[in-house]
Every structure is written in structure tokens, then in C-alpha cells.
Design goal:
The structure holds two protein chains of two kinds.
Chain A: E1 4-7, E2 10-13, E3 18-25, E4 31-37, E5 44-50, E6 53-57, E7 64-70, E8 73-79, E9 87-94, E10 103-104, E11 108-112
Parallel strand pairs in A: 2-11
Antiparallel strand pairs in A: 1-3, 3-8, 4-5, 4-9, 5-6, 7-8, 9-10, 9-11
Chain B: E1 4-6, E2 11-14, E3 19-25, E4 32-38, E5 44-49, E6 55-57, E7 60-65, E8 70-75, E9 84-92, E10 96-99, E11 103-108
Parallel strand pairs in B: 2-11
Antiparallel strand pairs in B: 1-3, 3-8, 4-5, 4-9, 6-7, 7-8, 9-10, 9-11
Classes of the chains: A mainly beta, B mainly beta.
Chain lengths: 113, 109
Amino acid sequence: DTEVTQTPKHLVMGMTNKKSLKCEQHMGHRAMYWYKQKAKKPPELMFVYSYEKLSINESVPSRFSPECPNSSLLNLHLHALQPEDSALYLCASSPRGLRDEQYFGPGTRLTVT
Amino acid sequence: RKEVEQDPGPFNVPEGATVAFNCTYSNSASQSFFWYRQDCRKEPKLLMSVYSSGNEDGRFTAQLNRASQYISLLIRDSKLSDSATYLCVVTHNTDKLIFGTGTRLQVFP
């Protein structure tokens, strides 16, 4: 099973809302990632969790808050977002870390109104 | 200069053609290299890891040239289904990963 799942597929939220994105993998991977992708641009790395600890935060604003409850799950908590945060949010996992190949989930398409 | 650069294309090629993409990187300490493909409004999917000795998977061949700091992807006998954006990814140390901007390929009948 080389599948990474993400929920929800689509999300529309207002600037005062609080919502969460969820990601799950059952490949036994120990590194998990959040990316943001705008149209016609490559994915931008946001956070990396390695062995359930946050190892990289690419200077992401605090309105994005990641959480790794266990080795299979990764959440991204959203609060007080701005319209420019509208994008495709991709989760990925890899066996150990950045040097390994990554497997991406289908993404959550987020619209902030 | 960007850390990872790709020709954005689009490359428009007929079915059956051979097409090659290059990706240059600026950090000589880069350690891992990958090619991903991304279809419109879909997630990136791993195509190949790239090794120093070069590697081949069916119609796809990837090469790494450390001296000139580029990786390449060769697609032989192009199919319509190869139409996608091809992204190169470069990592160095354990804390840096960079996607190239992608090269768009359109294969026509």
C-alpha cells in the first residue's frame, strides 16, 4: 500500500474560522511533510516531521499549526487565514527523511473567503 | 540564480518522439535527486530517483552529472499519456529540499 490519504478534498473557510486538514499513511514511513502549492507553481515545503518531531518549519506564519499525533497521522490546523492562503495543500511521506523518495496525497484544495 | 532551474517549456512533441529535459542545481553539496510528474490539478507522483550511475525504467532514463551540476530525464517513444509537468527535486544535508519550477510536456497525436 503506497497510499497517502488526505481529508477533506475541498475546503472553503472564512477568515475567522478554525479548521483542520488531515493526512494519513500506513507505509511505516517515519517522515511526513506539508506543502503548499499555488497554481502553475511547484510545491513549497512548509513543515517536516521526522520520527514524530517537528524538524523543519520553513518560516510558516503561526496561523498554520502542524501536529503529528502518531507516526501515521499528520494534521494541519488553520486559524485566521487570509485569502492569499488559498492553495492546494499537499501531504507527503517518506521512509526516513528528505533524502528519500516521497509519496504524496491527493491534496486538499483550500479556498479562504 | 535560482537554486534549481528547469526550462518551463512547453515542449510540444509528436507521439513516438524522444524528448529530454535538464535540471540544473547550484549547490554542489546536493545529495539526492528525483524526477516527479504532476498532472493538471493532481498531486506529484514519483517517476524516478536519480543515481550517479544513471538509471533506466522502461522508456525513461535519468542521468546525474555532478561535475556540471545537472540532472536529465530522457523519454523515448513518447505516449499521449506522458503529457504532464515534470518536476526535478534536489535535496542537500537533511534539511533542505527544493523543487524546480517544472517543465511542461505536451505529446500530440
